[in-house]
Amino acid sequence: MERVLAQLNLKGKAHMMTAGSHCEVALHILDGHQCVVKIIRGHSSMDTLGATRLVDDIVSYQRLLSDIGVPIPRERNCFPLEDQGTQSTNVVLVESYEGEDAGDCLARMNDEQARFLVRRMLCAISPFLRARRRSGGPLLGIDPKPNNFAVNDAVTYVDTVPPRYRRDNETLVDLPIPTDPNAWKLAYWRAYTPEGVLVVLQTQLCRVRPDLLTTFVKEISAAASACGVGAYFECLPSRVFPTMSALERKAFVRSLEPTDMYLMRDIACFLAHRDSRKFDQPWLDAVFKQSHFKGSVSRDGFEHLKGELANAL
Ligand SMILES: Nc1ncnc2c1ncn2[C@@H]1O[C@H](COP(=O)(O)OP(=O)(O)O)[C@@H](O)[C@H]1O
Ligand SMILES: [Mg+2]
């Protein structure tokens, strides 16, 4: 990052922000105007052609999001930049600063403020939900984790890397593209379908504030019903476990497969909501990390996690 900032003449003029999973991020103040510099590190195999293609994909994806009405950073400039140190090519995205990380805001909100913020996030992604219901609309995906939204007077969706859209005959689901067919299907489902997108939102909200689970479940279920996918949410553990016996809950957990990562996460949130001292933030974060299905699954790790959840119920 330092080397790239130096190449951009920004060394010492920008401060580092928390990195995301694909980008390193710095905040820079330019003529009193705040902007964010993101560096998408070149994969070892990314040459100039690969970087130029990624830039094209990011620009196309941003245009699609903006065209359907999802609020994204107002100003954006994306370009390839050769790394003079490693000879590989990075992709740089410079965009307007759109406010505080919604995950950080959520962490300190009361129930009413959190409910209002969730409604604003749902409003930001509602063009996506509507577009997915219309046949013939553009095929694109999103990742609505709270920290992919920035909050000031408006709520803005800021995470446009990796680009998720249908390019020619290829649907881009993640970066790098999953090679395992089950991992590809799951990456598609969680970003491109209303059920997937809303369950990502619900579980990631609960990850930040398990104490507010009831509020989140209510808001997400209402949004899901409004877009015709309410049935999926009526069967989630967070909804059905409270009225199930311990035996039934354990049987539910035993039936889980590695690709059921969102059900496992939902169960972990249910436990953290019920007993936050025993199932605290580090425990919840660990379950989210362990349950991430990327294709190659350690059977032992998965069975261990299932055992841990079943014992806790
Ligand atoms: N335009 C922006 N305005 C304000 N904050 C931003 C902006 N873009 C990114 N951020 C902050 O930087 C973090 C990482 O950026 P993001 O684009 O989500 O990268 P990644 O794809 O690696 O997750 C975000 O969680 C957010 O807090
Ligand atoms: Mg992000």
Key words describing this protein structure:
313 residues; alpha+beta; Transferase(Phosphotransferase), domain 1; five-stranded antiparallel beta sheet; three-stranded antiparallel beta sheet; 13 helices; 10 strands; 15% strand; globular; binds adenosine-5'-diphosphate; binds magnesium ion
Describe the structure.
It is a single chain. The chain is α+β, with helices and mostly antiparallel strands and about 325 residues long. About 50% of the residues lie in helices and about 15% in strands. It has one domain: Transferase(Phosphotransferase), domain 1 (Orthogonal Bundle), CATH 1.10.510. The chain is globular, with a radius of gyration of 20 Å. The mean pLDDT is about 90. Adenosine-5'-diphosphate binds next to strand 2 and strand 3.
Short description:
By secondary structure, the protein is of the alpha+beta class. Helix content is 49%, strand content 15%.
User: What's the mean pLDDT score?
Assistant: 91
Structural class: alpha+beta
The oligomeric state of the chains shown is single chain
| Count of domains | 1
Q: How much helicity do the residues have?
A: 40-55%
